[in-house]
């Protein structure tokens, strides 16, 4: 099989996930018995997975979440009044799809920011655009933006965001 030219062409076309999967499959003797359609399905699945992961990573970087919080790591045992069923329903992100708002309230130090970041992280995984802003810093940025002409552009960017977290 002409593996090197094929791999080179896949990489040239920007199909790095397929190229990596092709190399791995070609190295496995049992994979040589697969039908062409099975090979293609495996290569396409790997490419799609890699692209989804890259999109997620880009959205997570752009979101600038304060905490690397994961829904799976939420502690429901602590006495902070967190309803597991409600939080898991919120993690489904249907409220974002319906363009609803969410206000997380509670005393200082109970993990409101962490919960917001966990929901933001999940929203990134679900293909939503997310932006995290500390309110004092955002207001300062907006005040400066009024003077240098970026105010409208910043507001437009905030308005386009699927999930805007204000902390």
UniProtKB/TrEMBL annotation:
One GO biological process term: DNA replication
Record-annotated IstB-like ATP-binding domain positions: 10-167
The record's InterPro entries line, in alphabetical order, gives:
IstB_ATP-bd, P-loop_NTPase
**What's one Pfam family the UniProt record gives for this protein?**
IstB_IS21
Question: What is the top-level taxon of the source organism?
Answer: Bacteria
Annotated GO molecular function terms are: ATP binding
The name of this protein is DNA replication protein DnaC
């Amino acid at each position: 099989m002409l593996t090197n030219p094929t791999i080179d062409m896949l990489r040239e076309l920007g199909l790095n996930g397929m190229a990596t999967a092709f190399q791995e499959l070609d190295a496995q003797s049992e994979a040589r018995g697969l039908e062409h359609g099975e090979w293609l399905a495996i290569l396409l699945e790997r490419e799609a997975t890699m692209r989804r992961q890259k999109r997620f990573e880009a959205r997570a970087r752009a979101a600038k979440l304060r905490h690397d919080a994961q829904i799976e790591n939420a502690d429901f045992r602590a006495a902070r009044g967190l309803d597991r069923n409600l939080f898991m329903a919120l993690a489904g992100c249907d409220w974002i799809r319906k363009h609803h708002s969410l206000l997380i309230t509670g005393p200082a130090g109970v993990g409101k920011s962490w919960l917001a970041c966990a929901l933001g992280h999940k929203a990134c995984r679900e293909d939503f655009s997310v932006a995290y802003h500390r309110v004092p810093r955002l207001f300062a940025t907006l005040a400066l933006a009024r003077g240098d002409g970026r105010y409208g552009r910043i507001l437009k960017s905030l308005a386009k965001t699927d999930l805007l977290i204000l902390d």
